[in-house]
Design a protein that fits this description.
This protein is α/β, with parallel strands linked by helices. The protein has one domain: Rossmann fold (3-Layer(aba) Sandwich). It has four helices and six strands. The longest helix has 21 residues.
Amino acid sequence: MTRNSSKLLKFIIMPVPAVLFIALIAGCGYTTRSMISDKYKTIYITPFINKIDITSEADTGNRYRLYYPRLETDVTRSVINKFLFDGNLKPAKEQTADLVLKGEVTAFRKDPVSYNADDNVTEYRVSIQVNISLWDVKEKKLLWQENNFTGEKSYFTTGPLAISEGTAVNNTMADLSRRIVERAVEQW
């Protein structure tokens, strides 16, 4: 190997760790920070309203609609807890909040997903549907609105993975709350 070719080889090989180090330091644009504007620091979550119409007659399209007691209260609490856990927007009193999240529960469903050989349901999908909107308090402006926003989870009724319906509903509320918080802190 000639002297020039060994210098060229060193020039090619030596910078590789440096380039990898620079790439590692620079990152690829991923951040755990919220995409929400810095002017928004606090949020007030209004108590969700239960708008589920339990007086309508059941038909094949909505025969799995159910009433779940205190669902709107539990959803409100779950959303507040998820905002506390997330930390991007701090829940606050209505008078001091930068943003207000308004919501109404419009549907609660428990649909069969799978059956065993005896035609008994072995798996259900629980879903909670809400209409939500986010308001800028200072500018009195609607920032966004989502109708039919849904959280859902499936659960087994038998076998080693079986859980109770109450646990499944709590898991569904956790999924819905996670989705609501993600929607609230993403860039609009």
